[in-house]
Amino acid sequence: MTMQSTPGSSGYLDLYPDRKMSFFKNPYILGLTAVAGIGGMLFGYDTGVISGALLYIKDDFEEVRNSNFLQETIVSMAIAGAILGAAAGGWINDAYGRKKATLIADVIFGSGAIGMAAAPNHYVLILGRFLVGLGVGVASVTAPVYIAEASPSEIRGSLVSTNVLMITGGQFLSYIVNLAFTRVPGTWRWMLGVSAVPAIVQFTLMLFLPESPRWLFTKNRKNEAVDVLSKIYDFARLEDEVDFLTAQSEQERQRRKDIRFTDVFKSKEIKLAFLVGAGLQAFQQFTGINTVMYYSPTIVQMAGFESNELALTISLLVAGMNAAGTILGIYLIDHAGRKILALSSLGGVFTSLIILAFAFTNQSSDNQLYGWIAVLGLTLYIAFFSPGMGPVPWTVNSEIYPEEYRGICGGMSATVCWVSNLIVSQSFLSIAEVLGTGATFLILAGICVLAFVFVATCVPETKGLTFDEVEVIWKERAWGKNQDTRNLLSSA
Question: Which of 77, 252, 293, 320 has the highest Cβ tally under 10 A?
Answer without folding.
Answer: 293
